[in-house]
Amino acid sequence: MTKIQQDLEDLTQKATSALIACEDAAALEAWRVAYIGRSGLIPGLLRNIKDLSDEEKRTVGSAANALKRELEEKYQEQLHVIEKGASTRGVQATNCKLQAGGGHLHPLTLTLNRVHEIFSAMGFIIADGPEVEEVKFNFDLLNTPAEHPARGAGDTFMVDPMSVNGAEDLVLRTQTSPMQIRSVAAMQLHPPFSVIAPGRVFRKEKVDATHESTFHQFEGLSISETTSIADFKSVIETFFSAFFHADVVIRLRPSYFPFVEPGFEVDMSCVFCKDGCRVCKHTKWIEVMGAGMVHPNVLKNMNIDPDKYQGYAFGGAIDRLAMIQYGINDIRLFWSGDVRFLRQFDRVIPAKAGIQVDPPSRRAGVDAGSSPA
Ligand code: FA5
Fold this sequence. Notes:
CATH superfamily of the largest domain: Bira Bifunctional Protein, Domain 2
Low-confidence stretches: 87-91, 351-366
CATH architecture of the largest domain: 2-Layer Sandwich
Keywords: Aminoacyl-tRNA synthetase, ATP-binding, Cytoplasm, Ligase, Magnesium, Metal-binding, Nucleotide-binding, Protein biosynthesis
Number of domains: 2
Family: Belongs to the class-II aminoacyl-tRNA synthetase family. Phe-tRNA synthetase alpha subunit type 1 subfamily.
Catalytic activity: tRNA(Phe) + L-phenylalanine + ATP = L-phenylalanyl-tRNA(Phe) + AMP + diphosphate + H(+)
InterPro entries: aa-tRNA-synth_II, aa-tRNA-synth_II/BPL/LPL, Phe-tRNA-synth_IIc_asu, Phe-tRNA_ligase_II_N, Phe_tRNA_ligase_alpha1_bac, Phenylalanyl-tRNA_Synthase, tRNA-bd_arm
GO molecular function, one term: ATP binding
Mean pLDDT: 85
Largest sheet: 8 strands, mixed
Bound molecules: adenosine-5'-[phenylalaninyl-phosphate]
Order of helices and strands: HHHHHEEHEHEEHEEEHEHHHE
Radius of gyration: 26 Å
CATH class of the largest domain: Alpha Beta
CATH topology of the largest domain: BirA Bifunctional Protein, domain 2
Strand content: 15-25%
């Protein structure tokens, strides 16, 4: 390889990674001037071609011209992304050309890792459990009456016993809440303890921009002799403040879930505005999870004495958090496999919570029961 060919190769790599790192118009303009502008490195390289032999002129010249065209195209694409405000927030499917490159994490994995980091740092242990779940765990032990609409085949994916060696009463779990019961039993937890269980859930939903039939929840459970709603509010405020790097305030609204009493919907103050914006639908609040104080019947089903112990449980969606964090306007993009969408996360560097994070051994992924199927 001649020196000029080597220079060309080095320049290709340098220019491509520098372009990917441009997140605003000023950085992009500086890149344009440095690489493809009139006095930039690429035109400079092309000017040197005149000193080469005829054969080198042909090979190196056509390669350098192709590189110049390619970088100009990529520059236009990046400009388009930045103008649409879609570099980190406001991510949408845009026209990017397929190109070879290193792999990177999916936005849901980035979000899940962050949830792990923050709750681990607050002393929660992480549990994992089955996606094919027994009706007993998904509903009965969670104090959900037989006539509850969520139990019907209209809302829940039933598992055909024929497909699982005749095992009956299995469903695709509709929520991560069965992990409340499973994690306590499998890890033989005794209060005080705090546990978090992320995982995939399934519902017969009409899929639209904000509803998927397969999505990801994270369940939280914290029990002690004194755990109160105030503790819940403080932990969740700390979580969302760390997650969004902002001073988040939490608001609780009364709601009903069979496994908690009282139950509430949790809203967080909008992290993008003070006076209302598109993300908070001009309400200044964003609905983020369901929660409540664990129902005495559920404590009993965990073999925990409800006269002595109390605590809170909560369940939020990883997908919704990712949408808020990255400004994704359609949940269906996560499963689309559309590389134009996915490649926009190749430059998202997993942020640190800014609080002490426990070593990985703590979140070894305690398995709280295997699939009964
Ligand atoms: C539950 O699933 C309860 N298990 C949460 C809970 C846990 C309450 C513990 C009390 C104690 P809900 O159906 O509201 O609640 O779902 C929780 C969150 O999942 C919602 O706030 C919403 O952000 C998200 N979610 C619900 N349905 C969908 C869907 N189809 N697609 C994406 N996200 C959804």
